[in-house]
Design brief:
tRNA-binding, EC 6.1.1.3, 649 residues, aa-tRNA-synth_II, alpha+beta, eight-stranded mixed beta sheet, Threonyl-tRNA Synthetase, Chain A, domain 2, RNA-binding, 4 domains
Amino acid sequence: MVKITFPDGSVRTYEQGVTGLQIAESISPALARNVVSCGVNGETVELNRPINEDATIALYKFEDEEGKHTFWHTSAHLLAEALQELYPGIQFGFGPAIENGFFYDVMPAEGQVISENDFAKIEAKMLELAKKDEPVVRRDVSKADALKEFEADGQAYKCEHIAQDLEDGTISTYTQGRFTDLCRGPHLMSTGLIKAVKITSVAGAFWRGDAKREQMTRIYGITFPKKKMLDEYLVMLEEAKRRDHRKIGKEMELFMFSDRVGKGLPIWLPKGTQLRLRLQELLRSLLRPYHYQEVITPGIGGKSLYVTSGHYAHYGKDAFQPIHTPEEDEEYMLKPMNCPHHCEVYARKPRSYKDLPLRIAEFGTVFRYEKSGELHGLTRVRSFTQDDAHIFVRSDQVRAEFEANIDIILKVFKMFHFDNYEAQISLRDPKDKEKYIGSDEVWEESQNAIREACKEKGLTAHEEIGEAAFYGPKLDFMVKDAIGRKWQLGTIQVDYNLPARFKLEYTTEDNAKQTPVMIHRAPFGSLERFTAVLIEHTAGHFPLWLTPDQVAVLPISEKYNDYARRVVDHLDAAGVRCVIDDRNEKIGRKIRDNELKRVPYMVIVGEKEAAEGLVSMRKQGGGEQATMTMEAFAKRINDEVAEQLKTLD
């Protein structure tokens, strides 16, 4: 017999060899119908995998993140099976599950091209195969047998993967119908659960992400256990297109990109710069009670700085290549992180225990080389500005300082109505310690510090193994926007390692030397990503205190341009941000264009307004309309801003 412990702590006894499905059946038939995979001792496995020893178990439905991953992993294999039937001779690369669905990288045979025109027939073939309810069968194979099998099928990319990446004794395959793939799993027990299919896009992707290798065809898709779920997802996709920050940012003239400046290098336009500066000032106001000291550090640093910090060894491939100067052996790097610079700020003079906590903040712009195919608007760029800070503390101050930063991040979320969020404790992978620096004792201490801080704050946080930074664990905050998409924003990290690498010290009360602990934190994460998420969360309808243009003044015709400028001057003097639209266009066109720019208020001026010194107000979206004096309108705007700012305190 084996003892099975459930997430609620309850324990049941089953015969050795029991499966996740049998355990689900023992609880309820409804659960057994809906469960798609299970977690055994923290590892997600198939429902028919035997359990031969005492274990903790979790049963995953499609609604669970682990369940979706299993479902979409099998769907990637179903896509490949369909492609194998539709395109004889096609070769397969990698086909993982992703956050929303899955993709497969393939190399069609000579003369074959897969385009959007083929989506319908691929979907039909996938549904045809799914209806056969083919069992998905796992098999452990030797390296030699795997090479022999995939060579016989002419799968050159699979053979390269086996030869270069896989070790004997760790290789398994999964077979459904006539399709077999290299895979570690987990998978559904059969394809019959897949009831709705949508191929979403096709793109190019270099084999192994190497621009020097051949370009493959990447096919994206998503599947669901019910057609209704797919229908709801497609509605969400349409709403996501409407809210796309790249589209709205262009309409509102917030930011731009230029190929001549460089891919992934955003340029903040005047209106976007106003927005960004207001966000910075908001955060500064939040930090004032904590006595942060703001610094400005260079956009480059000597290579040795990042060798000392460990960033060169761990992030060198993701950074821009070193910059060589005319001096022999002199190398610099574009700054990928602010923390090494802040360590140097700490080290500039002796520190005492009385100086701690020492809080060093910077809106620091950093540079990281992202592959061209992964760049996406402001959410994935090569240059971005972090609302960064590094706090140097004594060991006994770690928890209190960590809790204070939780408070700051949650206050930011409340201010912007990010009410749906979850916290994730990102831990080191104990099976892959080479990716990290520092001793086991240091990691255990820092990970427990985060757990205790979350417990003290009453913050529920799930744990993710392998998601820590190379120098320490972290608490990441995942925000769901207005249409349910998840974004990683704020982060707090505990770091016992970088201070030691930089030989940072402080003098203790008994005159001894001690190494401080370093806390990294960024409430926004980066100004670029935060702005992108805020645009999509609000669909560009920012609160009045934040929006770049609060009012657009629209003269009915050129005859009233002079009066419109008087209105602008009056509003400017009253502290209202306004813009005049004095184009020679019909008033209907001006209204439509400024609606598109999400200007909260429009004032329309014509003969009556000019004669009586009035403005006709029109609220965004065609809501409230009224006529009033310039003074009354300016007061209304300022009162509304004051009321909004009061709620932020």
